[in-house]
Specification:
This protein is α+β, with helices and mostly antiparallel strands. It has four helices and twelve strands.
Amino acid sequence: MPIQIRYISVVIPVENIIRLKGQDWWDNYLKSREDMLGIILWQDKYLFRDGDMDESGADNIVKFWKEQGLTPKKIVDGKEYWNDLCVVHSFNGLTLPCEWLKVFYVTTKQNVKVVSHVSFFSDSSKEIIGPTRKYNIEDSKFKHLF
């Protein structure tokens, strides 16, 4: 399922975390953060989202995952790309290219283009995971959030 973007989001394929740390570690991590699930942390079967309202907070999230063994960035033909995770700003979109993430935009009532949600490249689901509730992409209630 696509996941909603808020402020500055750090998006990680769940499979990258499990491949590196194992299912037990992942389950324990989620349990240790259960008070934040549905508030600043959310996930679908493909993607996990953490985030912050400012750059330094997002940088700390990336640093944490790097310390866990993920490789945040890679160089391809001399150009920097996101690798094991991506950082997405709700107003500016991807901060670097990311090969495995699709980004979807909407235009607000104030005529500002913002990132609505992202999805794993192979995911065609319509339901969007976000804070505390789920929305359908075609749902008029979702469109009225902007």
